[in-house]
Amino acid sequence: MRFESLAAAVFAASALPLPAMSAPFAYISNQLAETVSIVDTKSGKVADTVAVKGKPAGVAVSPDGRRIYVSAPESGSIAAIDAETRKIVKEAKVSSGALGVAVDLTGKRLFVADWYQNIVTVLDADSLQAINTITVGQSPSGLAVSPDNRWLYVANRLSDSVSKIDLEHLTVAATVKVGAHPFGLAVDSEGRRIYTANVESDDVSVIDAASMKVAATVKVQSRPYAAAFALNDSRLLVTNQDSDSVSVIDTAELKEHAVLDVGGKPEGISAHQDDRHVYVANWFDGTVSVIDAKSLRVVDTIKTGDGSRAFGQFIAK
Fold this sequence. Notes:
Low-confidence stretches: 1-21
Mean pLDDT: 93
Order of helices and strands: HEEEEEEEEEEEEEEEEEEEEEEEEEEEE
Strand order of the largest sheet: 7-6-5-4-28
Number of strands: 28
Largest sheet: 5 strands, mixed
Number of helices: 1
C-alpha cells in the first residue's frame, strides 16, 4: 500500500482500531486422555481443553491459524477444531490407521497418512471429503509440505524411505532410502533439505530435496522421533524418546551440537512463531517442555494431559 506522506500514513493508522494482539496457541493431542490441550504460549498455561475421541495423535494447524486438524487412529477419523470457538466443527472418517497430518500452504487441502493401508489421503480441508489417495511406502507417518507448496514429503517407517509427492499431479515423483524406521521429518525454509528422524538407527538423514539423495547422516540419541527448526534454520531440534532428551543439530556443520534433558518420552515438537522457542510434548509426563533454542535451556514446563503426543505442526507458522 502506498501513502502520499508519512503524516497521512500515521493519521490513517491512528484512525483504525488496534487489532487484538495475542501469542499463538499450541495444540497438544493427549492420546491417553482423548483430549487436545490448547496452550496459550504467552501465559504458559492451558487455556482450554477439547475432547477428541479415538486416541488423538497427529496435529496440523491451518496457515491462518483458524482450524486445527487432529487425527484419531483408533477411530480412523479426522476432527476439525475451530480456533475461535474451541469446538469440533466437523469430523470425518478417513481410514483405519490415520496418523500423520499436514495442511498445504493455501489451507485448502489436508493430507493424512494411513499407517496400515500405506496411503496418503488428500481431503478438502473445509468439507473433509476425500479428493484422492496416493500409494506410498509401508507405514507412512510424518508429513511435511515444501515452502513453495509444490511437494509433499512422506516418511515411510517400515520401508525405511521418504516419498516425494508432486502436489500438482498427486503422484509420487521420487523415493529415497534413509535410516532405519523414519518417523517425523522437517523441511528447511528454502525447501533445499529434508531431515528425517530415524527411530531405529538413532540418527537423522539429511536429504537433498532436488536430487532426492541422502547428503549426510547425523548421529543423535536413543529413538529419535520428530524434528523442528529454530533460529533461521541454523538449529534443528530432535526429540529422543528413550533418552528423555532433545538433540540440537548445527545445520551448517551437520553435527549434534547439544543434548537437552526434557520430560519423559518426548515425541511431538514445534517451533514458536518467534523462531526461538521450541515446544516439546512429553508422553510419559503429560507435559510440554519449552526450550529456548538460543540459550539451550528448558525455560518452562506446562502440564497438559495423559499421553501428550502432538505429532505434527501444532503451532501456526
